[in-house]
Amino acid sequence: MNTRRHSTSWPKLALLTAGAVVFLFPFAYMLSQSLSKQTTGDLGSVIPTPGSSGTQNYEAVNGAVSLGTSLVNSGVFTAGVLLCTLVIGVLAGYGLARLHFRGRSTLFGALLLVQTVPFQLLMLPLYVLVVRDYGLGDSYLGMILPFAVNSTAVFLFRQFFLQLPAELFEAARIDGAGELRILWRVALPMARPALLTGTLIAFIGPWNEFLWPFLVTKDAEMQPLAVSLAGFMSNLRGTVENPTGAVMAGACVLAVPAVVLFLLFQRHFTQTNIDSATKG
């Protein structure tokens, strides 16, 4: 029986290995090109040779766009969106799941409707409101404000709070606890899978966001790294010796925080946890 099990696992292992190689190859190619002194575009160059690698591309792109300042801008932008998404998502999700008020179903239906509207359709009115009416161009608040409410996160937290036993909340109310205390002391300690899933959803979007920060920031000192790299590719690539390698180096720097976040919380992002965070 063990022999049959091992024989049937080999095809699955080979298929998974092939899928992993296909998935990881672009990352390996990006990293190898960022360290290459000369970019040839040859797929075989993914394997470095002695004397062909160095950190000169990182130094070149850092001299052109100031990676440190751009990373700080990306971090502030992402942290602001992450904080607003989790706070508003938890409060709104709890209210829609555990509070009974008139219009709750209509409000939840409107939430689902908002999810179907592409952000690009709202970009022009948002630009007029944020930049012209509120005067928030070239500011962190102007970048954060349109992403402060994440309807996907509200939906995720609502579904999680719905699956918690109603007896827990009734017992806390009988003991005289208010709704905010019930949320803080009863619901949130059990909402760890939903919080981790919401963190991942809220982090990836703004960290990689390009179009909205590009519209609202004209000052290079306020631009996130994705916008700075786009400006480098358009205007400054001729100022460095290996422009493709410099762009690859910038892309590696942009990818590092997301990879670190995944590695730190990898064991929490299991299928079971995500299922429990989204099951209604």
UniProtKB/TrEMBL annotation:
The answer to whether UniProt assigns keyword Isomerase to this entry is: no
The keyword Disulfide bond is annotated on this UniProt entry: no
The protein's matches in PROSITE patterns, at most eight in alphabetical order, are given as: ABC_TM1
The membrane spanning regions, by residue number, are 76-96, 108-128, 140-161, 182-205, 245-265
The protein's location, in the record's own words, is: Cell membrane
Keyword annotations for this protein, in alphabetical order, are: Cell membrane, Membrane, Transmembrane, Transmembrane helix, Transport
| Location (main, coarse) | membrane
The record's Pfam families line, in alphabetical order, gives: BPD_transp_1
What region holds the ABC transmembrane type-1 domain? 71-265
**Top-rank lineage group of the source organism:** Bacteria
Q: How does it sit in the membrane?
A: Multi-pass membrane protein
Which family is this sequence assigned to? Belongs to the binding-protein-dependent transport system permease family.
* Name the record gives this protein: Carbohydrate ABC transporter permease
Lineage of the organism:
Bacteria, Bacillati, Actinomycetota, Actinomycetes, Kitasatosporales
